[in-house]
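Worked example 3 (structure in, sequence out).
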């Protein structure tokens, strides 16, 4: 670790921090952005990703001092006034804490298919929802998350922040062939369970009672539109969470959390 005091927001060493608001450009450079002290601390301590550098306020640097010593020698830790962050990044970094790290590799569909339970997301483009699903997957012991081609990037900074760093810890794979990837998961012995508010479908409680011992791929669609007809047709079982008649549906991250919690009680996910 190498502490570097920054006084000029135009310092050339901060070039990558000037593009952090452009998720696609950061991705093309093979990087991702972690924000906030808790997430950055987890990034450092987990040591799954190579940290290129950090940009911290003086207060954040003091708060993270115990974690910073775990960084490899030579990793630059740029320290500046918190008021300089908008000039550097183009937006207000409220906690004055940001890190750039090398992107984690996709673990591959076949690797995740060996898990006891996984979550499969179709067309989830909202980073908050995707981050919430990863947080639930970590909380309830799912082995990973499979993403259809239209899902957003789990290493987008907003998804990382919403997940409280879970997108850095929970393995994920991008399914390029969709929905054929569902058949491939079934070939690995997973039961494809479509979570849907539509009838006909078993209640979650009824399914949990009858599925003890099954290896499960919980299939969840995007907010509003839900699962595609193709994906639902491929699924082995359709499961719903009973709710009040005057409420049309649950937020997808909330529904995923409820389902994983109930299934973990009955099947030991």
């Amino acid at each position: 670790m190498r502490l570097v005091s920054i006084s000029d927001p135009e310092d050339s060493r901060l070039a990558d921090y000037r593009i952090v608001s452009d998720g696609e450009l950061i991705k093309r450079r093979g990087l991702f952005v972690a924000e906030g002290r808790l997430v950055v601390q987890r990034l450092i301590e987990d040591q799954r990703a190579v940290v290129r550098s950090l940009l911290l306020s003086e207060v954040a640097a003091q708060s993270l001092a115990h974690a910073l010593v775990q960084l490899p020698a030579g990793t630059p830790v740029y320290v500046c006034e918190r008021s300089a962050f908008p000039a550097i990044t183009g937006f207000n970094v409220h906690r004055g804490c940001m890190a750039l790290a090398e992107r984690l590799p996709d673990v591959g569909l076949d690797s995740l298919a060996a898990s006891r339970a996984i979550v499969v997301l179709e067309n989830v483009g909202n980073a908050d929802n995707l981050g919430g699903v990863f947080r639930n997957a970590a909380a309830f012991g799912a082995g990973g998350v499979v993403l259809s081609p239209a899902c957003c990037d789990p290493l987008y900074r907003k998804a990382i922040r919403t997940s409280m760093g879970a997108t850095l810890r929970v393995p994920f794979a991008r399914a390029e062939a969709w929905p054929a990837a569902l058949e491939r998961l079934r070939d690995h012995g997973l039961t494809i369970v479509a979570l849907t508010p539509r009838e006909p479908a078993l209640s979650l409680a009824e399914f949990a009672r009858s599925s003890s011992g099954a290896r499960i791929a919980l299939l969840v669609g995007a907010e509003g539109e839900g699962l595609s007809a193709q994906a639902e047709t491929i699924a082995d079982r359709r499961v719903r969470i009973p709710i009040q008649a005057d409420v049309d549906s649950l937020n997808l991250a909330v529904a995923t959390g409820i389902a994983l919690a109930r299934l973990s009680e009955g099947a030991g996910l």
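Notes: The CA atoms of residues 136 and 178 lie 24 Å apart. The chain has a mean pLDDT of 94.
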